[in-house]
Amino acid sequence: MFENLQDRLGSILNGLTGRGALSEADVSAALREVRRALLEADVALEVVRAFTDKVREKAVGAEVLKSIKPGQMVVKIVHDELVEMLGSEGVSISLAAAAPVVIMMVGLQGSGKTTTTGKIAKRLTDRDKKKVLMASLDTRRPAAQEQLRQLGVQTGVDTLPIVAGQSPTDIAARAVQAAKLGGHDVVILDTAGRTHIDEPLMQEMAEIKRKSNPHEILLVADSLTGQDAVNLARNFDERVGITGLVLTRMDGDGRGGAALSMRAVTGKPIKLIGVGEKMTEMEEFHPRRIADRILGMGDIVSLVEKAAENIDAEKAAAMAKKMQSGKFDLNDLADQLRQMKSLGGMGGIMGMMPGMAGMKDKLAASGMSDKTFDRQIAIISSMTKAERANPDMLKHSRKKRIAAGSGSDAAEINKLLKMHRQMADMMKMMGGKGKGGMMKQMMGGLASKMGLGGGMGGMPDLSKMDPKQLEALQKQAEAAGLKPGGMPGLPGGGLPGGMGGLPGLGGAKLPGLGGFPGLPGKKK
After folding, report:
1. Concatenated DSSP letters for 49-100?
2. d(Cα 300, Cα 289) in Å, to the nearest integer?
3. What is the SS3 assignment for 220?
4. Alpha-helical segments (H) within 311-409
5. What is the pLDDT of residues 492-524, one digit of tens each?
6. DSSP three-state, residue 496
7. Torsion angle of alpha carbons 111, 115, 116, 119, nearest 10°?
8. Helix axes 313-324, 330-342, angle to 10 degrees
9. C-beta neighbour count of 425 within 10 angstroms
10. For a pLDDT cut of 70, what percent of the chain falls above it?
């Protein structure tokens, strides 16, 4: 969603960081461009004015203009003010009240209230281990109550039985009573919406609030609606009194202005964002991480959290053990591709890597996309069990059959097999047999030469090396043929910069992503 804004701000701020000194005129010219970029992203005018005024006040001070790296100081000021505008710290849904905690969902028709209700219920059930009851108060929209019931069946969450003819306020009172009798921790009220704000809607919301006494009132807003969403938030807050915001369709191609404006206009925190259609695609809103993404600084923390939720730790450990023995068949390759898809594909991963946001366009230009993964998985799925375990048996007749079954051609199959061979060779070289593999021998040998101790079978602790030692290690690695280049054999000639040359998180190399830095997994 923030890609256009990210590109604009990135080019503006890069122009500042490349200069040795900044004048007040340089800062003013850059801020004019920042102002234009924010307005084009549909950020509210009053928010843009306040933002640029605060940045200018700090950026034209003597501390910045006389600092060693004034351009970087300005970038830091812009980042800090962006975080402040988005809300400083993330705020999650509060459950600090006597059970059952009542959460009231409000918003206009079509904003995604019912689906969001189901997502929040599943999130509270799975992550917080709460017993949740959902109740639909929408008696106007056809089949609205049935839609919520179906979502309850899909997510395994209890829903209030439908009683025809009841008013929304009566349903709210019955839901709270049923939650008390059923021992539920949380009851979520999915209220009716309108195509626009009107007086009857506001009166109904106020009456439901009086009857149910909600602990949280969450406004669900479509992030693609721009400034209308800001006016909507202001109206609902004045009439009903919201405690937080939930933005839907954050995976869309909107300009992101609503997300940047709503917190600043209402003073209410954005608590959750919908990032997809699946019931699991709901994330907490972290202002600092969003600001990092907008300014192209990456979001490695969210990537790690995503990996922890999507990657099975036991399966990843088994994969690592298999790779250390030098074995890597097409089943393993398919698992790697599926894991990358579950983390948001190449584009999603690149967007969260510090300094790698610009790589997404280069990947797209090279023909490398998530659709490539789908085709490759389809090719592997069209093979027999024996063929996946032993790719060498794939001759012309077998390739012809696989191409027909996967909707591909022989050239694509050959590309896939070449990629697999190169990855398998890399696994043998890195993990290897004998004395522990080339990488381990090289690292251990270098450690002894440098007088560095360390676990991991004699491998040195990179975090304790000074720049000269790291440079020497890199030269020895290149001399041994271990040059960066990431996953070899991918269309476009591999990933420049060497995914897999990235530093390990937490000091450990995590298994399971075919050369990616190791990411922790979930336990079943």
Report:
1. HHHHHHHHHHHTSHHHHTSSSHHHHHHHHHHHHHHHHHTSS--PPP--SSSS
2. 9
3. strand
4. 313-324, 330-342, 345-352, 359-365, 370-381, 385-389, 396-406
5. 333 333 333 333 333 333 333 333 333 444 444
6. coil
7. -160
8. 140
9. 14
10. 65
Nearest to 516 by CA among 300, 222, 290: 300
Least confident residue range of 69-78, 142-151, 454-463? 454-463
Of 60, 51, 68, nearest to 28 by C-alpha is 60
| C-alpha–C-alpha distance, residues 195 and 140, integer Å | 12
Whole-angstrom distance, CA of residue 240 vs CA of residue 346: 42
Q: At residue 172, does pLDDT exceed 90?
A: yes
Question: Is 219 strand, coil or helix?
Answer: strand
Neighbours of 516 (CB within 10 A): 24
CA distance 184 to 140: 27
Q: At residue 61, what is the residue type?
A: G
pLDDT digits (tens, 9 = 90+) for 286-333: 888 777 777 765 444 455 555 655 666 666 667 666 666 667 788 888
Tokens of 512: 């399971």
Neighbour count for residue 491 (Cβ, 10 Å): 14
| The two three-digit tokens of residue 239, written as one number | 């009439």
Buried b / exposed e along 472-481 (16+ C-beta atoms within 10 A)? ebeeebeeee
Type of residue numbered 196: H
Select the more confidently predicted residue: 379 or 262. Answer: 379
More confident residue, 259 or 402: 402
Predicted confidence at residue 171, as pLDDT, reads: 95
SS (H, E, C) 163-185: CCCCCHHHHHHHHHHHHHHHCCC
User: Phi-psi region for residue 405, left (φ > 0), alpha (ψ -120 to 50) or beta?
Assistant: alpha
**Who contacts 365 (Cβ-Cβ below 8 Å, separation ≥6)?**
492
pLDDT digits (tens, 9 = 90+) for 95-114: 989 989 999 999 988 889 99
- As beta bridge partners, residue 132 has 186
User: Rounded distance, CA 114 to CA 106, Å?
Assistant: 10
To the nearest 10 degrees (0 to 180), the angle between helices 24-40 and 70-86 is 30
